[in-house]
Amino acid sequence: RTRLDVNSKERNEEGMCLILISGVQREQCEEAKAIVMDIVNDDDREGGRMERGRRGDPEDEGRGSMDIWVETSSLGRLIGKGGSKIKEIESKYRVKIDVKKDHQEGNETKVILIGTKRDVHATRDHIYDIVDEGVEEA
Q1: What is d(CA 121, CA 35) in angstroms, rounded to the nearest whole number?
Q2: CA 63/CA 76 separation, integer angstroms
Q3: Can you name the residues that pair with 17 across neighbouring β-strands?
Q4: Count of alpha carbons within 13 angstroms of residue 113, beta-carbon side
């Protein structure tokens, strides 16, 4: 079992973020590193990166997850009364949304999106639209 922790809050001069790979077996960590490097190299060749707020059109239907950061004050709009909005989004986009209220940085809360790459990206865009609507109304 291998774990990837992506620190999207801190980036180097090239806009790249830190990825920490940890696990019990070295071979699994090396395999995870190779997969990440393949993804990074593919994105570089295609001229794009999975950046916060960037709207992409991924062709790959593989399953995966993405961490996004949502303003804590906007979580109510995302979750809805009794969880109705988040359930609606999960159903519409065929994803699992995990709001990590115990993972906050500044005024933002970590939200994990799980599903196919295409569905995860579409869900991310929809969530950012919801959050942006709240900012425009304020």
Answers
A1: 19
A2: 27
A3: 11
A4: 26
- The b-or-e profile of 34-50 (16+ CB within 10 A means b, else e) is eeeeeeeeeeeeeeeeb
55 pLDDT band (50/70/90 cuts)? very low
How many residues are given for the chain? Answer: 138
Residue type, 97: I
In single-letter form, the type of residue at position 24 comes to V
pTM: 0.55
- 3-state secondary structure labels for all residues of the chain: CEEEEEEEEEECCCCCEEEEEEECCHHHHHHHHHHHHHHHHHHHHHCCCCCCCCCCCCCCCCEEEEEEEEEHHHHHHHHCHHHHHHHHHHHHHCCEEEEEEEEEECCEEEEEEEEEHHHHHHHHHHHHHHHHHHHHHC
